[in-house]
Amino acid sequence: MNPPAASTGTLTSLSNDLADAVARASTWIVAIHARRRIPSSGIVWQPGVIVTANHTVSRDEEIGLTLPDGSSAPATLAGRDPATDIAVLRTDAKLAAADRADPDHLQVGRLVLAVGRPGPEVTATLGIVSAVGGEWRTWHGGRIDRFIRLDLSIYDGFSGGALVEAGGRVLGLNTSGLARAMALALPQSTVQRVTDELLQRGRVARGYLGVAMQPVRLPRAMRQKLELNGAVGLVIVNLETGGPAERAGLLLGDLIIGIEGHDVSDPSDLLRYLGSDSVGRRVNLSIIRAGEIRTVGIEIGERPSPRSDAS
Fold this sequence. Notes:
Elements: H1 5-26, E1 29-33, E2 40-46, E3 49-53, E4 63-66, E5 72-81, E6 86-90, E7 111-116, E8 123-133, E9 136-137, E10 143-144, E11 147-151, E12 162-164, E13 170-175, E14 183-187, H2 188-201, E15 207-208, E16 211-217, H3 220-226, E17 232-239, H4 244-247, E18 255-259, E19 262-263, H5 267-271, E20 282-289, E21 292-299, E22 301-302
């Protein structure tokens, strides 16, 4: 039995639209030769500037590009930020910059394409946006403005390529380097923010305290005695030698219950105060030590760059 003509026409129209979207995106997707295995993908973010997934860039020099027309060009590393898995390259090649999509198109259920160039030819996979959430932090403290999970395949060489909507415009940068067995995309706002800082400074500065913490429930008797509102504090389980917390006099076993007058019950509560503009700023921590509440002033340091393990 033949399918109705209307259904055939709809499928043909969708197929043509998707092919056109890939063709449009292919004009600003390049292959990046910066590791031993197959090339990775990159997006021409602005004239002379290419963004990619940092975990795919295993060397700082002798980086090559395969351009959309099949020709080759050199590139230099402008900077990398392992915490958000973004690396930025510069090139003198004259390339068209990516068209940006309206961020409102990031909706659960929308059809999207992962477009990459893990070699001379452009490749693509089709799927949907499976989840969209708010701001989140990576394991290394990188701030991602929106959580975007994808129900599609990120094959070898696809990381660093583009998440593309049905019109062929970029929604974000695809990566498999921030979560195991999960395809994620970094939103435009995060890519732009990190790119601007890497182009300006070569790195992304982040504040840190030099402590490892673990949430613990506070005993009822302690909460009543100290008239605490929160039921959870952060116990210090490790101190970095010579770090900001140790220099400020914090000790193993201290319970952090507040920062700048605000209760804390999770390490992410502290991370909100440790952005790039926090380095050198002095803040007050509220802690419990020997059953008493104390205030400790601490100068926020600059977090050392995490090591990037290329894959």
